[in-house]
C-alpha cells in the first residue's frame, strides 16, 4: 500500500526526531561535560558545547586513575568488566546449550521435571537469593576472584528455554538421518546442532553480554579488592566522595566509556541478532 | 542368497498400541520390495524398524544372516532416503553426501572419489558446492539419494521419497530410481501409499493393512490373483468393482433378479469382483446385466463410465467400467455389459480369503 499523505510523513518523522533527541541529549551532555573542567558545574548553567579540558580529562581517566577515590585507571576496570561479561555470556551459552540438548534429545527419567525445575529458577534471580549465594561463594573462598564474579550468574533458564525451542524446531528426520550417517551424540551436537543454532547463539550473545556488562549489585558485594572492580559499579563509587568536589567531568567520561562495549556489540551483531530472533533457516 | 529376513517382526508401543502384530518377509539380494498400503497401515513403522529408528518389540530382523535387533542404525549398513529429504541445511551438497563417510573415518581422497562418482551418476557435479536451500525439489531428492548411494550400503530404505514432488517429476524420478537400483543391484525396501508407484517399481509387493501383510507377491500376481478384497481394491486404478453377493446352486446371486451362472462347490456370502477394464460392452440379448450410466469421464485414451446396475429396486450396486478410446454415451441411458467369467474374483465374505 502506497500512501501519500504529507502531513503523516511529517508527523512520523517529527516524532522519530523528537525521540532521538530525547535519547541522545543526555549522551551529548555527558560528552560535552567531560571536556570542561570539574568546576564548570558549580556555576549554575550547563554547557552545551565542547570545552578545552577534554584531552586532559580523558587522558587521566583512561590511563592514570578514574578519580574521586578510585585509584585504578578506567582501562583496567574495563578489562575486568569485559572478563566478567564474557565469562557470564559464554558460561551461560555453553551451560544452556548442553542442558537444552539433554532435555530435548535424550530420554531419561524425570526429564520434564528437570526442565520445569530449570524453568522455575526464572523466579530466583541473583537479587532474590543474594544472601545465601554470597555465603556459598564466601565459603568456597571465591570472594575477589573472576570465578566468584561470573559463576553464580551463569545458570540461565531463559537461554535454556530459547535453545530448547530452537532444538524442538529441528525436524526429527534430520536427527534420524544423522543417526544413520553414524553421528554419535557429540558429533551430532557439534556438526548439526551448533551450526543450526548459530543465529540463536548470536542473538543470545548480544542479550547476555549486555546483561553481564551491566551487572552492578553482585560485583559490588563480592569485590573488595581494587584489582577486581568492574566499571559499572565503580561509577557509583566515584560519586560517593566525602570531602571536596565531585569531579563530574571524569565521571562523565567514565560513563561514556562504560556505554561503548554494549553499543559496539549491538551494532556489530545487529544483523545476526535480528536473524536469530526472527527467522530460522531450517 | 537371502539378504534381509524379517521373522515374525512385530511392534507394540509402550502405551499398548499394537502397530504391527507380526510380519514375515524374506528378501533376496538385489530385490526391489515395495511396502504399500493406506496411511496408518504400519508400512513406515516397519521400514523404520528395519532401519533401527524404531525398536523391534517381537521377532527378529536379520541382514545377511546377522541379527540386527539390537544394532544402532549406523551399524546396520543401511542407507535411508527420507520423505522430506532430511538434508543438513547448513552443509553443501558435497558435505551432505560426504558426512556419513567422514563419520566412518574414511580417507579424504577416497571420499572425494566416491562422492564425485555418485555425483556424476546423478548429474549433481555442478551442484556440489551449493546449499540445499538453493536446490529445487527434484535436485534435493537426488542429493538425498546420492547421500544414500555414496555409502554403498547393503540395503536401501526409501520412505515415500517421491510424495513431495509434482506429478511430472515423480514419474521421471520413479523411472530413475528403478534404473539406478538395477544398475547398483542393491537390495531395496521402498515405502509408498501410491499403488502406481508400487506396481511400476517393485519386484515384489507387500500390501499392508492394519499392520498385517495381506499379500506378498509380484505386481502381476497381485493384479491377477489378489488374495483378499482389500488387495483387490487397492491394486489397480480405478479399483476393482467389488459387490456383496451370495453363491447358490444357480451361481453368483447379486440381487433378487440378477444371478450370474456359475458352478462352484462353495455356498454362502461372498464378495464378487471384476476389474473395470475387464467388463465388455454388449447388447440386450447377450449382456449379463445393464448399467444405468451416472457419469462419464473421458480421458482420451480411455473412458471411465460410472453407473449403477439396473434393477427393479432403486438401489443397484455401483460399478465402474473402463473402455479404451473415447466413448460418449448419454448419462442416464442404459448400457449392456458382459462380465467374462475368467476375470471374476471371488472372496469369502467371512474369512475375506480368495475362493
From TrEMBL, chain A:
Question: Is Membrane given among the entry's keywords?
Answer: yes
Specify where it is mainly localized. Answer: membrane
InterPro entries according to UniProt: MetI-like, MetI-like_sf
What SUPFAM superfamilies does the record tag this protein with? MetI-like
Please provide, in alphabetical order, the Gene Ontology terms of the cellular component aspect for this entry. Answer: plasma membrane
Q: Where in the cell is it found?
A: Cell inner membrane; Cell membrane
Looking at the record's lineage, which domain of life comes first? Bacteria
The answer to keyword Ion transport applying to this record is no
Q: Which residues cross the membrane?
A: 7-31, 82-106, 113-134, 146-167, 188-211, 246-267
Q: Where is the ABC transmembrane type-1 domain?
A: 78-269
Question: Membrane topology type, per the record?
Answer: Multi-pass membrane protein
Give the GO biological process terms: transmembrane transport
Q: What keywords were assigned to this record?
A: Cell inner membrane, Cell membrane, Membrane, Transmembrane, Transmembrane helix, Transport
Briefly state the protein's biological role: Part of the ABC transporter complex UgpBAEC involved in sn-glycerol-3-phosphate (G3P) import. Probably responsible for the translocation of the substrate across the membrane.
**Subunit structure of this entry?**
The complex is composed of two ATP-binding proteins (UgpC), two transmembrane proteins (UgpA and UgpE) and a solute-binding protein (UgpB).
Q: Which family does this protein fall into?
A: Belongs to the binding-protein-dependent transport system permease family.
Task: Please state what the protein is called.
Answer: sn-glycerol-3-phosphate transport system permease protein UgpE
Species of origin reads Marinomonas alcarazii
UniProtKB/TrEMBL annotation, chain B:
Question: What are the residue boundaries of the ABC transporter domain, all occurrences included?
Answer: 4-235
- Show the PROSITE patterns listed in the entry: ABC_TRANSPORTER_1 (PS00211), ABC_TRANSPORTER_2 (PS50893)
Family matches, as NCBIfam families: PRK11650.1
State a single Pfam family of this protein: ABC_tran
A Gene Ontology biological process annotation?
glycerophosphodiester transmembrane transport
User: Which Gene3D superfamilies does the record associate with it?
Assistant: 2.40.50.100, Nucleic acid-binding proteins, P-loop containing nucleotide triphosphate hydrolases
Keywords tagged on the record: ATP-binding, Cell inner membrane, Cell membrane, Membrane, Nucleotide-binding, Sugar transport, Translocase, Transport
GO cellular component, alphabetical, reads: ATP-binding cassette (ABC) transporter complex, substrate-binding subunit-containing
Tell me what this protein is called.
Answer: Carbohydrate ABC transporter ATP-binding protein (CUT1 family)
Any one GO molecular function term: ABC-type transporter activity
Amino acid at each position: 500500500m502506497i500512501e501519500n499523505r504529507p502531513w503523516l510523513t511529517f508527523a512520523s518523522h517529527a516524532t522519530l526526531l523528537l525521540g532521538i533527541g530525547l535519547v541522545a541529549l543526555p549522551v551529548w551532555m555527558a560528552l560535552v561535560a567531560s571536556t570542561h573542567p570539574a568546576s564548570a558545574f558549580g556555576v549554575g548553567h550547563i554547557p552545551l558545547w565542547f570545552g578545552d579540558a577534554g584531552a586532559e580529562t580523558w587522558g587521566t581517566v583512561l590511563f592514570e586513575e578514574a578519580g574521586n577515590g578510585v585509584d585504578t585507571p578506567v582501562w583496567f576496570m574495563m578489562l575486568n568488566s569485559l572478563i566478567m561479561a564474557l565469562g557470564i555470556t559464554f558460561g551461560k551459552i555453553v551451560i544452556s546449550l548442553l542442558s537444552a540438548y539433554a532435555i530435548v534429545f535424550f530420554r531419561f527419567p524425570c526429564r520434564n521435571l528437570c526442565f520445569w525445575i530449570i524453568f522455575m529458577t526464572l523466579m530466583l534471580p541473583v537479587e532474590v537469593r543474594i544472601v545465601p549465594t554470597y555465603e556459598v561463594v564466601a565459603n568456597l573462598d571465591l570472594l575477589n576472584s573472576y570465578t566468584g564474579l561470573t559463576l553464580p550468574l551463569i545458570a540461565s533458564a531463559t537461554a535454556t528455554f530459547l535453545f530448547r525451542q530452537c532444538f524442538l524446531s529441528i525436524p526429527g528426520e534430520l536427527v534420524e538421518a544423522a543417526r544413520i550417517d553414524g553421528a554419535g551424540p557429540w558429533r551430532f551436537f557439534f556438526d548439526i546442532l551448533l551450526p543450526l543454532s548459530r543465529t540463536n547463539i548470536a542473538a543470545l550473545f548480544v542479550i547476555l553480554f549486555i546483561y553481564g556488562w551491566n551487572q552492578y549489585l553482585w560485583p559490588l558485594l563480592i569485590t573488595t579488592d581494587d584489582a577486581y572492580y568492574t566499571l559499572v559499579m565503580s561509577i557509583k563509587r566515584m560519586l560517593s566522595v566525602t570531602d571536596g568536589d565531585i569531579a563530574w567531568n571524569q565521571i562523565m567520561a567514565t560513563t561514556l566509556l562504560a556505554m561503548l562495549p554494549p553499543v559496539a556489540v549491538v551494532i556489530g551483531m545487529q544483523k545476526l541478532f535480528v536473524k536469530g530472533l526472527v527467522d530460522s533457516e531450517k | 542368497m537371502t539378504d534381509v529376513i524379517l521373522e515374525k517382526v512385530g511392534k507394540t508401543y509402550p502405551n499398548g498400541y499394537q502397530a504391527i502384530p507380526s510380519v514375515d518377509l524374506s528378501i533376496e539380494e538385489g530385490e526391489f520390495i515395495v511396502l504399500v498400503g493406506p496411511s496408518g497401515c504400519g508400512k513406515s513403522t516397519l521400514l523404520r524398524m528395519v532401519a533401527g529408528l524404531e525398536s523391534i518389540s517381537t521377532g527378529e530382523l536379520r541382514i545377511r544372516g546377522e541379527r540386527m535387533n539390537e544394532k544402532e542404525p549406523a551399524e546396520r549398513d543401511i542407507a535411508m532416503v527420507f520423505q522430506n529429504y532430511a538434508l543438513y541445511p547448513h552443509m553443501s551438497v558435497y558435505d551432505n553426501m560426504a558426512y556419513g563417510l567422514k563419520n566412518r573415518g574414511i580417507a579424504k581422497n577416497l571420499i572425494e572419489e566416491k562422492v564425485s562418482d555418485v555425483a556424476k551418476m546423478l548429474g549433481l557435479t555442478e551442484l556440489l558446492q551449493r546449499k540445499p536451500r538453493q536446490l529445487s525439489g527434484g535436485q534435493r531428492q537426488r542429493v538425498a539419494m546420492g547421500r544414500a548411494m555414496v555409502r554403498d550400503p547393503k540395503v536401501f530404505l526409501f520412505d515415500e521419497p517421491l510424495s513431495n514432488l509434482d506429478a511430472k517429476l515423480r514419474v521421471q524420478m520413479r523411472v530413475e530410481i528403478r534404473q539406478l537400483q538395477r544398475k547398483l543391484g542393491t537390495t531395496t525396501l521402498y515405502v509408498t501409499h501410491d499403488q502406481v508407484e508400487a506396481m511400476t517399481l517393485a519386484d515384489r509387493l507387500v500390501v499392508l493393512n492394519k499392520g498385517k501383510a495381506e499379500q506378498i507377491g509380484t505386481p502381476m500376481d497381485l493384479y491377477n490373483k489378489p488374495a483378499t478384497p482389500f488387495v483387490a481394491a487397492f491394486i489397480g486404478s480405478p479399483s476393482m468393482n467389488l459387490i456383496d453377493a451370495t453363491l447358490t446352486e444357480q451361481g453368483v446371486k447379486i440381487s433378487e433378479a440378477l444371478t450370474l451362472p456359475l458352478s462352484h462347490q462353495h455356498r454362502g456370502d461372498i464378495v464378487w469382483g471384476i476389474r473395470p477394464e475387464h467388463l465388455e460392452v454388449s447388447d440386450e440379448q447377450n449382456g449379463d446385466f445393464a448399467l444405468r450410466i451416472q457419469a462419464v469421464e473421458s480421458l482420451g485414451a480411455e473412458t471411465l463410465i460410472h453407473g449403477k446396475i439396473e434393477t427393479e429396486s432403486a438401489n443397484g450396486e455401483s460399478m465402474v467400467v473402463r473402455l479404451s478410446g473415447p466413448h460418449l454415451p448419454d448419462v442416464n441411458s442404459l448400457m449392456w455389459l458382459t462380465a467374462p467369467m475368467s476375470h471374476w474374483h471371488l472372496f469369502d465374505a467371512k474369512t475375506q480369503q480368495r475362493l
